[in-house]
User: Fold these one by one.
Assistant:
Number 1:
Amino acid sequence: MKRILEEIITYQQLLVSLKKETMPVEVLKSFPGFSNPTRSLKQSVASSEQGIIAEFKRRSPSKEAINLKADVMEIAQSYEQMGAAGMSVLTNQRYFGGSLEDLQLAKSVCNLPILRKDFMVDPYQMYEAKAYGADAILLIANALPSEKLEELAVLAQELGLEILFEIHEAEEIEKLASKHIDLIGVNNRNLSTFEVDIQQGLDMLPHLPSELLKISESGIQDTETIGKLIEQGFNGVLVGEFFMKQKAAEQNTNNR
Ligand SMILES: O=C(O)c1ccccc1NCC(=O)[C@H](O)[C@H](O)COP(=O)(O)O
């Protein structure tokens, strides 16, 4: 079976080449948001008790429908009210039902730093992230060679975007120099098998550079697990499905 990550990366490369034709970088640079100052996700996580990065996620390759009817503006405001340190917005349409417009709307209705959670493969996407209002971007260690990760990281930093560098295995930390990393994310989900192992993430803690803020990502399904991860040394958590399902349940109750 072709790994989903490889499939997504191939798709992204094709998508970016089409977008470059329809919306050149020069046009992205003229977006009003392009020159906005960055809201620091790093500072917000560092100064928050549980460093919660709450994700907007309608569906996913592993779960299909999560909350298909979700309203991004309502959810952004509720994440801010519940005390999240930041918001992650999946901007990939095909696999997650998200969009850059979701990101733009989220940014416009709350004061949270916004992470563009997508599969970044090309410098063009850094300009796009900035134009639509992202404060931080994701770089996935397993998705690209070191040279490409560095190229994207350098440009992101030039544009004032912070970097969440995601790893699944401890050795992957070596793929990008610490000077380019604002937050290190340990993905508890294996992107080939979709298996989630929170303990494997916890076991990696002693191997991570002490100076970096550490985020536990994926598969977190209750508040007890959030507490345990923070108690054991993570500075924050990135949670999607659990919060989005809660929001769907609240919506159903309100509609009755
Ligand atoms: O969520 C998936 O099924 C998925 C599959 C393949 C690549 C990436 C995937 N997720 C992206 C994410 O990073 C998660 O949405 C994020 O860590 C939150 O996870 P969760 O709390 O389990 O929704």
Number 2:
Amino acid sequence: MSTGHDGPGRFSSAAPSPFPPIEEYAYLSDCHTGALLAPDGSVDWLCVPRFDAPSIFGSLLDREAGTFRLGPDNIDHPTSRHYTPGTNVLETTWRTKSGWLLVRDALVIGPAPPDDEINPHTRPPVDDDAHHLLVRTAHCLEGTVAVQLICEPVFGYGHTPAEWTMTGPQRHAADATGAGLTVRLATDLTLGIEGGRVRARHLLSTGEHAWCALSWAAGLAVPADGDHARALVDTTCRYWRTWLAQARIPDHRWRDPLQRSALAIKGLTYVPTGATVAAPTTSLPETPGGARNWDYRYTWMRDTTFTLRALHWLDLDWEAEEFMQFIADVQPTEDGSLQIMYGIDGRRELTETELPDLSGYAGARPVRVGNAAYSQRQNDVYGAVLDSILLHTRRSQRLPRRLWPLVVSQAEAATRIWTQPDQGIWEARGEPRHYVSSKLMCWVALDRAAKLAVLRGDADRAPTWAHTAEQIRDDILTHGVTTDGVLRQHYDTDALDASTLLAANFRFLPGDDKRLAATVNAIAEDLTENGFVLRYRTDQTDDGQHGKEGTFLICSFWLVSALAHIGELQRARDLMERLLRVKSPLGLYAEEYDAHTGRHLGNFPQAFSHLALIGAAESIILAERTGEL
Ligand SMILES: OC[C@H]1O[C@H](O[C@H]2O[C@H](CO)[C@@H](O)[C@H](O)[C@H]2O)[C@H](O)[C@@H](O)[C@@H]1O
């Protein structure tokens, strides 16, 4: 593989980076896998058949690891890009010297009922309707445009170039094979094989259409013709709109970002199991050119349960139903507690390895697959799960019988471990510590478990769990607060940590508590860069990593919620508006934001950022409506 750089993390100053900025990618999803599209019309990331499979288009991580372009010849910058409203279908408009072209891209999912049958109160159609098909249509709006198609898969994360064979007599379909996988490209253009790629070029005039589709479905089913291809794009639009129609999105000036966040989150869901990935990518760097590169294509208990919390507020409850099944089915560890993360199919082992042949995004190495965090002890996980079960129980007015053993085992696990150090919510790879946010989430675990026991009428367990919750609370307020009355990162430091903002989100402390106000203000003043929140200062924290990182978007959104909770509504609104201004051109967020360069950093799009956006908007909107939270 080419490195495209002259040393780790160092690009020649003469040549601009060949990697588009992370925030310029568009995201498509069929709820089995996701694709990232660069502004020039190239699919730079696609793993098939599902999120955690090896990539077939991996240019995101190495410019020679495979790509698939459809767009005008000789022009790289579109005039505009937007999602078809209410969908995860992309529309790109190009203006060339001789004409205008519209390209639509969809990872096909559907069928959905016709628009007039949308009923927000009924369950949507069975939504495992992915076609395992990427459809791309082109329409010349005016003049003439030379359309170029280049499809160059490289299988196994850039390892195995495709071997192409034409299928059928007309050179309108070809199969690419490599690493035990075959995908089929079909089009109305005339294809030519050039080694590991196929290419086509065709002049379209006003009103003319072209299409292509890539299939990895069983039987490699492809559209019959252009009408069918366009109908599949429309089907996909209907699918997303049908899904979105179930949501109760407040009629507020933030309606658009709320909708986009809901669509992004749903697009991170793996429908066969109800699990969500933290992000569809691996190894987009948290430090430019650096080594903080992780694989996020797994389901973290924390990320998913926080996601469900956000979706509940939008009345999107079916996702919680599915995920409850998932957690009831996954295999716990030997002591009965849940792992902190699983594969999207419930797999327990996520062994981390490096792919040394890949250059990494803009030279950021290593590229990792798997995630060693899976075997860590992170004591917040029980609270995240039990909070989610309580919320779900209240919303659905029933506690499914099969979840009760899980409630008991997680409450017992939290009771057993809350006094012990752990790796914390940030998954530090240094020494285990007595993290305040981990203990706070253990309090959440026992507090929510006690409430669930009351709902179930379990008179024995409810008081025991409530008593343990009180013990944890006392312990935190004794050891977890500095002499300035601020919640600290862990018991042996006075350093700040944005995860202590969860004291507001999970109502560990009431809005008028002085310690909460002191913590929120300290974080706003001392843990920010240009007003955006760091999760902690890397020079004050033993996280087992090197190098600085950007501000963490979830932490900035948490600060919005916390400011609203302590009654600082105008400060909350101001920060929310700033955060909305730094969204990507298509309304998406990565994990981090570099407050100095304005660039997004880390995996993209990131569920954490979008779920916290919804939570922050909720805090402000509720406060605006009622004058209280
Ligand atoms: O930066 C260190 C850690 O980064 C990842 O963890 C982060 O992402 C997780 C998924 O969104 C999230 O649950 C966690 O709170 C974040 O700190 C990475 O997965 C870890 O391996 C890594 O140590």
Number 3:
Amino acid sequence: MPDKVLGKSPHSDTSTITILTQEDNVTGLQIRKEGEWVPVKPIPNPLVVNVGDVIVIWSNGKYKSIEHRAATTEGQARLSYATFLVPHDDVEIEPFDHMDCPRSVWKYKKVRCGDYLRESLKMKMDGKAHTQVAKIET
Ligand SMILES: O=C(O)CCC(=O)C(=O)O
Ligand SMILES: [Fe+2]
């Protein structure tokens, strides 16, 4: 029932990077660019690499995690494998000093990686709403 099922709701990954295999010839993955959903064009033997939220925090927002979703297509089976590279649960993530980032300009607070993942997973998957977990309120 592809007309009734989206596939995977919009989100950004809570990883450092994500490596995704895709089908050679079935479109499904879409990224959000300037508010529009743009399909990722299939190519032979693809590996898609997504920047995840941990890199956003480390870079104090200089690098953006991509909002994406997966859509189904009638009559076309689709399989993707996602490998999420995530620090150990106990690793504390915070903006890196060497990103020219004194504490006074931090947009993200120090969070334990496991807490960030679990707090994000508790929330409804809704684009980048879960990144609030690590944001410093202004
Ligand atoms: O199916 C895909 O290509 C994307 C899957 C995905 O975004 C995820 O598992 O986080
Ligand atoms: Fe994803």
